[in-house]
Amino acid sequence: MKYFIFSLVIICSSFTLSAQKYEWKQATSNGYTYKYVTNDPMKARFYTLKNGLTVILSENHKEPRIAVNIAVRTGSNNDPRDHTGLAHYLEHLLFKGTDKFGTLNWAKEKPFLDSITNLFEQYGHLTDSSERRKMYQQIDRISGEASHYSIANEYDKLMKDIGSQGTNAHTWYEETVYEEDIPSNSLDKFLTIEAERFRKPVFRLFHTELEAVYEEKNRTLDNDGNKVAEVMNYHLFPTNNYGQQTTIGTIENLKNPSLKAITKYYNTYYVPNNMGIIMAGDFNSDELIKKIDQQFKYMQPKSFHPYAPAPEKPITTITEEEVYGPSAESVHIGFRTPASNTYDALVLLTISKILSNGSAGLLDINLNQNQKVQNSGAYLDQNKDYGVFNLVATPKEGQSLDTLKALLLEQLGKIRSGDFDETLLKAIVANDKLDNLKGMESNANRLNSLMNSFIRNKGEKWNDNVAKDEEMAKISVAEIEKIANEYFGNNYVLVYKRKGEDKNIVKVVKPAITPVETNRGRSSAFVQRVEQLPVSNIKPEWVNYETAITRSKAGIADVLYVQNKDNELFNLNYRFDMGSWNDKLLSYAVAYLDFLSTDKMSAQQMSKAFYDIACKYSINVSGETTTVSISGLQENFDKAVSLFENLMANCKPDENALKALKGRFLKSRANNKLNKTVIARGLMAYAQYGEHNPFNSGISDEELQNLTSAELVNELHNLFNYKHTITYYGPLSIANFTTAIRKEHRLPQQFVSYPQKEIFTFASQDSNKVLFADYDMVQSEIYWIRNIKPYNFSQEATIDVFNNYFGAGMGGVVFQTIRESKALAYSTAAFYRIPAKKEDPFSAIAYVGCQADKLNEAVAGMNELLNDLPDSKQGFALAKAGVRKDLETQRIVNDGIISSYLDDEKLGFNTDKREQIYDALPKITFDDLKQLHQDLSGKPYTYCIVGSDKKIDMKDLGKIGEVQKLSMKEIFGY
After folding, report:
1. Average pLDDT for residues 966-974, to the nearest whole number?
2. Are residue 112 and residue 259 in the same domain, yes or no?
3. Residues 815 and 908 both lie in one domain
4. SS3 at position 628
5. In-domain check, residue 755
6. Does the pLDDT of residue 5 top 70, yes or no?
7. Which residue, 344, 283, 305, is CA-closest to 486?
8. What is the distance of C-alpha 598 from the center of its chain?
9. Same domain, 286 and 358
């Protein structure tokens, strides 16, 4: 109790110091009063409307778009104990429309929906499997009848009509958030739609959406990281629902949903005094707040009981648990931490960065750079009521998880004793300020910060958020020691993630579902009215590369330059037209660089030196390009470039570092074979190129073991002898930049030729083939791959429209059919892929992630769409308009100008190709899409399937095509 009082004194005194700079003020404009925080770089306005609705606005006129979150301060914490997963169900159902849209005839549809609601209530109380099966058949039959009056995905069609991007939503413990990114000229339409969306939602097409949630649950069962988090939270929070209820719900509750309970939940928590509309982007706040008020004033506030659990009792012991699964082993240590926006939470956030900041933290230097572990990190996962301080590490070959635990706790002990460089605190603040400065450029980053503040405290502590860096700068070593010793003792949960079979997995069983009618191409009267609302035009802006990019020379190197007139950030790149296809050792040399010293600085000192000046360097080696990047604040440009150039020129061999690195490389290779996502990438490369492909053509394990320091260091010393282009985005003038870079960047008298590039030939699919990789999982991941024909720019506009119509997003026919109508998958897509360079062909890719016992139906469902293109005049018009609006509102700015130029150049253009695509759009007809679809229809594909051979019948795969069960050696090449 004494310490609690002391903490309050610290909080009050420290926050008072900053209050003069970051204090709440009130203003009135255009008849609306709002609050704001002085010196807030986002200039956010906080309104509270008469009905209690919170509106938070941050103007950013960089591009004619607006990022939107409609946030509700409720989530799975408020799920009833007997209906866990309910909040998440509801989130899905808020896309189904109301009595005005999503329906062709509400009067005729409603009786069916009422019947379905009542049947689900009865179904949830049945225990006899035969009776449950019969009742579900009845639900399925009536749902089919109801679907004749429903319009699937009409909300998504509305969003496509206004040009929204990234339509999505998420549910978590204490939040449900609906996400959009709209053109700024569509505000009136958007607000009309959203006001109607929340007026009286109708939970139609429920049992097919329920099946999508089942699929989502099964995906979590295949995610070892998710299982670790559930076990960790269960023990850290024995009272709070952070640990006692998962957001997606239990299998038992998922199988027995209640539409009545969902309706009650909606009516309780989806009230204006518990909701917020948060926007960042191109708008006038005075005009926008009036429009929001007019559209949402129908909402009436209601009293409700927010989630208020009893406080957790202190943890006084160490709890150990084990989680089994097919992925690589790891160890996780979690400590419970206090609520957000407390001084202690700020100190703990600082501690997490002292331990792990990617460059100079104790774990970064002492464990990762010294190669005592395969990898390690620390982070604070902060929620409203509590947080979790996480330590995590993965082992080297032969290293025990107990050893990892000891190493992590040893570094944490250094925090408790104050055994760290105090100058690190200043560097953490500088790097945080740099990240905030970068984040200001993005509407999405602004929105995320404001949304988190709303969820945790209705935005009332935004002043603390703005003042965070200044407050962090005041934290002393003594305070860090004190907080560390209070929270970090023998009071943690230790989870060993071990490799092995998880015998506790019970998947959600697939019910029998008859495909429902989607009424593709039909519209409600509401949608027709919204479509007629006037919209002002936004004129597209193309980049004139001749004027936007200044070309110069620095010695013999070409320079591409764009000036940053907004802030003091710089980004410098050295770009090589060679990569691992030219030189298989280059990526290994680049990895080795992080562990090398010079004659003046150790590797650890080098990492700390970069972090101290808030600058970063990275080297990315892909198949055909290598890019060296240095970025940070312009005031430290000379220091950063000099540091890096000195490292490249003077790095010295370190045999011990190489020996350890080889071991970690081999362990990483082994871990890749335990990662289903990496395995799938290997299968797809095998399908696209054949047995000899870029994915499996690296060096062998034996060649890796035989690498020498001399050859790797030689690679680094000689890198700048190869031809490369220098690109710069920053505040320096072109003259000052070229002078500065000539001084710092070492260049030869003449560039040497690139090593000869290995050529990979694209495979031709002459017959259906199945490439199968066995993996212990509940789901199956299915990919269709087909190389089509050589790149031809004249088809790009048609492809963009086709992808928008066919398989991109929730409004496409693939999503509507596979998920909405047939309930075969949670995630699905299909599209033409445009190559990165003109020498490569177009390809077709389709995907379904589904339960193993749905594989046959999923394959048949996707093949049907690949063979026969559904015809919807409305869908085509929306797809075409969507591409047009995307191009009209897209703004290529900052260093993106240079990236766009280089990308266009690889496809044979020296002008902004988007202009030609835009001009071609009006001429595109649905017949053009059908012609394009002919390259997909009736053609053979290579099917890449990752799944368990215990759950998938190989005979079924044989019906698809010739089956080749690939070994990990065949997939990875080692």
Report:
1. 97
2. yes
3. yes
4. strand
5. no
6. no
7. 344
8. 38
9. no
CATH assignment at residue 339: 3.30.830.10
Is 372 a domain residue?
Answer: yes
558 contacts 738 by C-beta, under 8 angstroms: no
Spatial contact of 483 and 351, defined as CB atoms under 8 Å apart: yes
Give the Cα separation of 549 and 895 in Å (integer).
10
Residue 811, pLDDT score: 80
Q: Are residues 281 and 337 in the same domain?
A: no
Question: What distance, in Å, lies between the first and last C-alpha atoms of the chain?
Answer: 59
> Could you give the angle at the alpha carbon of 849 between the alpha carbons of 845 and 851, nearest 5°?
145
- 435: domain range? 319-499
Look at residue 866 and tell me if it is in a domain: yes
Same domain, yes or no: 458 and 577 = no
Is the pLDDT at 35 greater than 60? The verdict is yes
Distance in angstroms (rounded) separating the CA atoms of residues 944 and 681:
9
What is the spatial distance between Cα 366 and Cα 369, in angstroms, rounded to a whole number?
6
Express each pLDDT in 749-792 by its tens digit. Answer: 999 999 999 999 999 999 999 999 999 998 999 999 999 999 99
DSSP structural state of residue 820: I
Q: For residue range 921-952, what is the model confidence (pLDDT) as tens digits? A: 999 999 999 999 999 999 999 999 999 999 99
If DSSP states are collapsed to H, E and C, what string results for 237-265? Answer: CCCCHHHHCCCCCCHHHHCCCCHHHHHHH
* Mean pLDDT confidence for 589-604: 96
> What is the torsional sign of CA 887, 890, 894, 896?
negative
In this structure, the answer to whether residues 522 and 400 fall within a common structural domain is no
What is the count of structural domains for the chain? 4
Judgement on whether residues 386 and 284 belong to the same structural domain of the protein: no
User: Is 6 inside any structural domain?
Assistant: no
Q: Which residue is listed with tokens 């150790």?
A: 602
Check whether residue 371 and residue 402 sit in a common domain.
yes
Residue 66's H or E segment, with its range, is: strand 65-72
Which DSSP letter does residue 939 get?
-
Confidence of residue 219 (pLDDT cuts 50, 70, 90): confident
List the one residue out of 899, 900, 894 whose CA is nearest residue 441: 894
Q: What is the pTM of this model?
A: 0.94
Query: Which percentage of the chain shows pLDDT scores above 90?
Result: 90
